[in-house]
Amino acid sequence: MDKGSEPVTLRMIADEVGVNVSTVSRVINSSDKEARRWASSEMIDRIRTVVAARGYQRNPHAASLRTRRSGLVGVLVPRLQDFVLATVYEGIEEAATEQGISTFVTNSLDRPENQASRTELMLSRRVDGLIFGDAHAGDPFLDTLAKRGIKFTLVSRRSGDHISATCDDILGGRLVAEHLLATGRRDIGILSGRQYASTGNDRTAGVVQACLEAGIRIRPERIVHGGFDAPGGRQATERLLEQGGCPDAIFATNDFAAIGAMGVLRDRGIGVPDDVAIVGYNDTPLAAELSIPLTTIHSPMHEMGRAGLNLLLAMLRGEAVQSVRLAPELVVRASTAG
Amino acid sequence: MDKGSEPVTLRMIADEVGVNVSTVSRVINSSDKEARRWASSEMIDRIRTVVAARGYQRNPHAASLRTRRSGLVGVLVPRLQDFVLATVYEGIEEAATEQGISTFVTNSLDRPENQASRTELMLSRRVDGLIFGDAHAGDPFLDTLAKRGIKFTLVSRRSGDHISATCDDILGGRLVAEHLLATGRRDIGILSGRQYASTGNDRTAGVVQACLEAGIRIRPERIVHGGFDAPGGRQATERLLEQGGCPDAIFATNDFAAIGAMGVLRDRGIGVPDDVAIVGYNDTPLAAELSIPLTTIHSPMHEMGRAGLNLLLAMLRGEAVQSVRLAPELVVRASTAG
DNA sequence: ATGCCCTACACAAACGTTTGCCGCAAGTGC
DNA sequence: GCACTTGCGGCAAACGTTTGTGTAGGGCAT
């Protein structure tokens, strides 16, 4: 449309219509019916057509300066390379676009110093609120943030009583345990992920609970921590195997960690699923494409992101909100067959 | 620091120091030496200390309104879930943060209507420039954008004469061909990716060139198109195999497509690398963890992102810039052994 | 005719910066 | 003694919105 020319302003269209900018502003920012409070029907039409004809676009800086709202939210994730968080962010961004707001996203690499500095950076950009995908359990950082009056929600991981949109990971863990027990497995090893992530902790807790209810106790050395990626899964699995015998099932709290685990087992000539069953988590598209298709838990990552953003928006509107817990779903494939 | 109180403004610190806001502004926005043009050394010190003590943060909306520069750049990618583009974006974001600017990123899903609408959305947010990771070869969209005077650069894919930061994909293709030929392969099938992506096209062209120079002609039906993910690679491979016999090597222009290809071969009982060698592209972390570790081309994804942003910034400063072509590197693993 | 309430706008003051220009005093050269 | 620079800083006008308040004119009841 306009070819590099000056952007059209409220005043320009006000002049063209022969009316004050205030009237134009009100008409633009009101619904059809609401606008009638401020202008006659004909005037509304004239303004609307001129606005459309000139291709007027509100200057968001001027508007934000005046209203003290930016329509911006900041998103912190451990790492965007991680398929899971990337998907969650896609959900956030999709919902944000629907609501006419924009998002900044950045990696914290799960390092506290980054979380703090990146948060301040977001705040200096005057975001209206924040979404954290990298919450650390028991970290006072979020508490102090809340005390400063900063609005935020959590996605993927939960922490304390802060509002969050997560998968019901405890239930997810239970589903895994029930499936493994039903298929005759009795000695379950768990790649539990990072100690500070509620995701791995809850999934692990779910397995432990369900096993206990079935009369099976999981020994502490069967639970190992490590990164949520393939190399992390590899290392964790090696530590697991070195600590005395091979379990007959391994639950990786993340599909990528499961892939790393399968690498180790292949190297050692341990058969999957004959010698040991493997279960992942998140139902990554890769899970179905692996040499040995992976049994896993489908988690609503996209929906978690959407919910996280909508919760934040509700908070910003001053509504009382409650955390959202979405349902996981078991997907059985070859890695636990037989 | 400040506990939810009113944000501190330029006027507040000006009043506290007992000086005009203009002076404070100039001191803040100048280097140590430059500031001496506007204030005495003692005054500079006093202003600096008060600014630090009060924790002053410039209001970017007010500044942008005045300067008509936002310090924002928009980034369009096909999909953030894609590891490759996520990594490129990490590079962009990292470089952006270093330069004190912020980025919006959004998915276009490689659909032209999204590219257009998302671009307009970014522009309505008053971005200073754009970075496209989803350029379509021969698409006039970018040309019209350039004609409108909008500044942008391309990453990952190139298109026309627009400034871009890419991997030297033709060279990458040649490296693959040379390796396969050297290890005795003669009949190469290529999963070429999307027709509109220069990445797949250039990589394919590189193979074809190198083979031709070695006196080997690749038949057109050996080149199949498809998605850059695992399911895409699976489908493309199936079409490839149905078109008459199995080649003794398959070059997937993307690691994930290679994984899909390996799935098909496994299903059909075709041995890798004995019956057919497989090569991927990008050297994803997963490549080394697969059941059959994947020979692939390492491409500087992160660096591409950094270069793309720095090129854009140079353009915005009005400098004359040239496209950047980064070097690929062959990584040999088991999938082409023997 | 008076008072009053609508409708349909207009006025103007912010919001917090940046930046062109002006001014004053002290120094400088002659 | 003069004109002239130079150093240091103030003044005020923008940038483009939003929003509280003001106000004409018309209709209505009294």
The coarse overall form of chain A would be: elongated
**Count of separate structural domains of chain A:** 3
E-strand count of chain A: 12
β-sheet strand percentage of chain A: 5-15%
Strand order of the largest sheet of chain A: 2-1-3-4-5-11
User: What would you report as the Rg of chain A, rounded to the nearest angstrom?
Assistant: 26 Å
Instruction: Please state the second-level CATH architecture of the largest domain in chain A.
Output: 3-Layer(aba) Sandwich
Low-pLDDT runs of 5+ residues of chain A are none
CA(first)-CA(last) distance of chain A: 64 Å
**Any idea what the CATH superfamily of the largest domain in chain A is called?**
Response regulator
Biggest interface, residues from each chain: A-B, 53 and 53 residues
Structural class computed from helices and strand pairing of chain A:
alpha/beta
What does this structure look like?
The structure is a homodimer of 338-residue chains. The model of chain A has no long low-confidence stretch (mean pLDDT 95). In chain A, helix 6 packs across helix 13 and helix 9 packs across helix 10 (198-213). Chain A folds into 3 domains: 10-58, no CATH class; 70-167 and 301-327, Response regulator (Rossmann fold); 169-299, Response regulator (Rossmann fold, 3-Layer(aba) Sandwich). Chain A contains 13 helices and 12 strands. The first copy, chain A, has helices at 10-17, 21-28, 32-35, 41-54, 60-67, 83-98, 112-124, 141-147, 169-182, 198-213, 230-242, 255-267, 301-316, and strands at 72-77, 102-107, 129-132, 152-155, 164-167, 188-193, 223-225, 249-252, 277-279, 296-298, 324-326, 329-331. With 338 residues, chain A is an alpha/beta fold. Chains A and B meet through helix 5, helix 6, strand 2, helix 7 and helix 11 of A and helix 5, helix 6, strand 2, helix 7 and helix 11 of B. Chain B binds a DNA duplex (30 and 30 nucleotides) through residues 9-11, 19-23, 25-26, 29, 36-40, 43, 58-68.
